[in-house]
Amino acid sequence: MAIVILALIALVATRLDAQQWDSQEALRLVQRAVDRRLETRRDTALQNYRAEVSGFVFFSTQIGEGLSDPPRLIKADQLAAEVYWRTPGMSKQVITAWRDRRYLPTDIAYHRDHLTMVVGNLADRITVGEGDEVRGVLHPFAPGGPTAYQYALGDSVSIGMTGRTLHLVAVDFRPRDPTAGLAVGRAYLARDRGDIVRLRLGFTAAAYRDQTIEDITFVLENSLRDGRFWLPFRQEVEIRRRVAWFDFPVRTLIRVRWTVDDLVVNGPLDPALFGGPALAGLPAAADSAGPWTEPLERAAEEAARPLSEQDLETARLEIRRLVGPRALQTMRGTRIGTNSVSDLVLVNRVNGLRLGIGGSAATGGFLGKAWLGYGTSDGRFLTRLALSTGVAGATGMVEGYRRVVDLSDIPVISPILNSFRSQEAGKDLGDYVLLSGVGGRVTVPLSARSSIALGLGVERSRSLTVAATPVHGTYRANPPLGAGDYLQGSVMFKRRDGGVGLAQDLYGEIRLEAGDGPTQYLRLTAEATGITTLGGRALVARGYLGWGTDGLPTYRSFVLGGRGTLLGEPFRAYGGRSMVLLHVEWRPTVPVPSVSFGSFASTGSDLVIAPFVAAGWSDRAIPGTTWSATGGVRPVVGVGVEWLMNLLRLDVGIGLLDGGVQVTLDVTRGWWPLL
Question: Are the beta carbons of 581 and 565 closer than 8 angstroms?
Fold first, then answer.
C-alpha cells in the first residue's frame, strides 16, 4: 500500500528542478533589481513621500484534524496611520486612529512592527516581530543576495497604461542551501529597470527564532506613482503559530492588511517628523474619532476578504513547490498529542470509559502520528498509525487503524456532551461499528481553495454490542452494522470555505466510493454550503445528498431524524441507501447587554437569532435496521439562538407533519472537531 501511494505522489508531483535556475538572463535581471534598490535610496528625483494608510490586524484560529477549515476570528483591530519616508531610506509611521473588537476571549498583545506597513519592500536584512520571530535574514534582492540564493524566470506579464506598456517578469528565488535561514518566494520585476512590483515571500524553517512559528508569509504590492516610482499600494502579512511541545489541531494566525488611501510624492515634509521611535501615535486601541464610516464588525468582514487571486494561500503553495516540505518543516522532533479532547477521554455504550494517548514525530519532510486507546468496559484496544509527506504541493498519507466510529457522516452532537449524557443518563446518540484496515490517500491542490484526493484501502467492519452501564437510565441496543472485508477506492473533490467576510460563497465536497467484498457497491455523497445575504444578514443553506447501490453495506448507509438533522422528528427514525437533507437559516443579530470578565473576555454584545427551515427524505431502507424510508419529504421549522460570543447554541425545532417539538443546547457545531 505504501508503495502505491508513493507512486501516486510521484505521478502528480512537479519536479522541483524542472525550472532553469541561475540562467544568465535571470541573473542579469536580478542584478538590475539589486542595483535599483540601491539607486532608489539615493535617487534625487524621489526625495520623500507622505501616505495616509488604513489597515486591519486579525487574530484568528484554525481547529480540527488537518487544519483545513478556514480561520475563526478572535479579535479584529482597525487602524489609520500616516507614513512618512525620505531619502536615504528613513521612515516614520504614526497611528492616528485605532479601534478593536473581540469575537472570542483573548488578551493578545501584538509586537509593534505587526502594526506597521512595510516600506521599501522589506529591509536588506529582514526582521519580523521586533527580532523575536525573524532576525537579520538576507533579502533576495539585497547586495550579496545572488551569492545566497538561486533564481529562475517565470511567466511574463504586460500591463497597458496611458502612453506606455509595462513588461513584468516573474522571478522565483530559493536558498542555495535549503537548510540555511533565508527567504523563498516569487517577485514580479519591471523588465526595464528591475523595480519590484509585487513580492510574495516566506522563510525556511531555519530562519525562525520562535519555536512556535509555523510560517510567516508576505504579499506586497506596489503601484506606479508619478509615472516613475514604484511605491506601496497594498500588502498582507500572515504569521501562523502552533504549540511547540504538544501536537493538537489548533493553529493561531495574525493577519495584517494595509491599503494606501492617499500618497503624495515630494511634498513639503518637516525633517523633525523623523525624530523619536519609528512607530508613534496611539499606544493602544481607543474609542477615538477616526475616519470610520461604518461599524467595525461590518468593516472587518469586508476587509477579511482575500486581497486578490494572488493571496496568502497561493503564496504558500508556491513556496512549498520551490523548496519542498523538508526545508519548511518547523514542528520537528517528537511530541505528545491528540486530534481532539475525546481522543483522550470519551464515554460511549460500547467502550464505556475510553482512555487514549497519542503523539507525533516529524523529520526529513515526513510526519508520523500514533494514537492508542483502551475501552475500560469492553477491554478493547484501539489504535491509529499514520505517515504523511508532501512533494511539490501534493501530500500523501498511509495509515493503519482499529477504531470505533459512528454510522453517520453527519455529526449530531458534540463529543464531549455526548460523553456526559452517556455516562449520566444513558443517552448515547451514536450507532457504532468497529473498523480495522490499512489504506492511503494522495491529495493534490487544484487552487488555493480546491483539491482532489485519491484513496485506496482494505477495511473490515464488525458489529459491536453494548458493554457499559450508565449511572442513570438504560442504554438502547447498538445496531448490527458489521459487513466483513472490503477493498475500497475513492475520489473526492473539495472546495474549502472562503473564510470570514464573504457575503456570497459556495463550498463543499463530492465523494465517490467503490467497494468490493461480500457485495459490490458504489456510494456517492455530496455536501454543499451556500452563503448569501438577506436584509444585510447572512442567509446560509446547507445540503447533503447520499446515494448507494443495492450492494451498499449497512455501515455505509444513511440515517436522519432528530437532533443534528431534522429537529422535531424522532431520532434516526429514517434512513436507507438514499437520502437528501436541506437546512436553510437566516442569521440576524440583536444587541444584548455584555457582561465583562476583565480584559480577557466578555459574554459578547450580540445575540444571533437564526430562524430555520429544514427538510429530509430517505428511501430504499435496509432490512434489519431500525430506520425506515420517510415515505415523502419530512419538513421541520425552528429557531436557533447563539450566545456567549457564539460559543453556545440553543435550538428549538418542530416537525410539521407530526407536531413533535425538541429543544437542544450544545457548543456551536464549528467547535465539535476540537472536542
Answer: yes
pLDDT at 351: 97
Nearest Cα neighbor of 149 from 124, 174, 130 is: 174
Query: Do 581 and 88 touch, CB atoms closer than 8 A?
Result: no
Q: Read out DSSP for 413-466?
A: S-HHHHHHHHHHH------EEEEEEEEEEEEEESSSSEEEEEEEEEEEEEE---
What per-residue confidence (pLDDT) applies to 476? 94
CA dihedral 189, 195, 197, 201 (to 10 degrees): 70
Predicted confidence at residue 394, as pLDDT, reads 83
Q: How far is CA 168 from CA 19, 21, 196, 236, 450, in A?
A: 18, 19, 9, 21, 28
Grid coordinates given for 129? 516581530
CA distance 291 to 96: 10
C-alpha cell at 436: 480495522
The Cα angle at residue 293 between residues 288 and 299, in degrees rounded to 5: 95
Length of the chain counted residue by residue: 675
**DSSP conformational letter for 612:** E
Output the pLDDT for position 69: 74
Between CA 356 and CA 361 the distance in angstroms is 18
Closest residue by Cα to residue 468 from 426, 499, 432: 426
Place of cell 479584529: 76
Give me the half-sphere count of Cα atoms (radius 13 Å) on the Cβ side of residue 675.
18
Q: What is the pLDDT of residue 548?
A: 97
Q: How many helices (H) and strands (E) does the chain have?
A: 6, 34
CA-based torsion, 600, 602, 72, 336: positive or negative: positive
418: Cβ contacts below 8 Å, ≥ 6 apart: 348, 428, 429, 430
Continuous H helices in 162-311: 296-303
Pair 669, 630: CB distance under 8 Å: no
Rounded CA separation 546/154 (Å): 44
Q: Which residues contact 360 (CB under 8 A, 6 or more apart)?
A: 247, 334, 335, 337, 367, 368, 369, 370
Domains of the chain by residue range: 2-328, 332-414+421-435+456-480, 483-675
pTM of the shown model:
0.85
Q: Any idea which residue has 456567549 for its cell?
A: 644
Instruction: Supply the pLDDT for residue 89.
Output: 78
Q: What are the 10-residue block averages of pLDDT along the chain, 675 residues in total?
A: 43 52 93 89 81 92 78 88 88 91 84 88 92 94 94 82 76 92 93 90 92 91 87 92 84 92 89 86 79 80 57 78 74 82 95 94 85 96 93 85 96 95 95 97 88 96 96 95 96 86 86 97 97 90 97 96 96 97 95 68 79 97 93 96 90 95 94 88
Query: How distant, in Å, are the alpha carbons of 14, 62, 338, 355, 566 from that of 673?
Result: 33, 11, 12, 18, 21
Distance CA 429, CA 621 (A): 20
- The C-alpha cell 464505556 sits at 352
Distance, in Å, from the CA atom of 660 to the CA atom of 652, rounded to the nearest integer, reads 11
Fold of the domain built from segment(s) 483-675: Porin (2.40.160)
Q: Which residue matches cell numbers 516610482?
A: 229
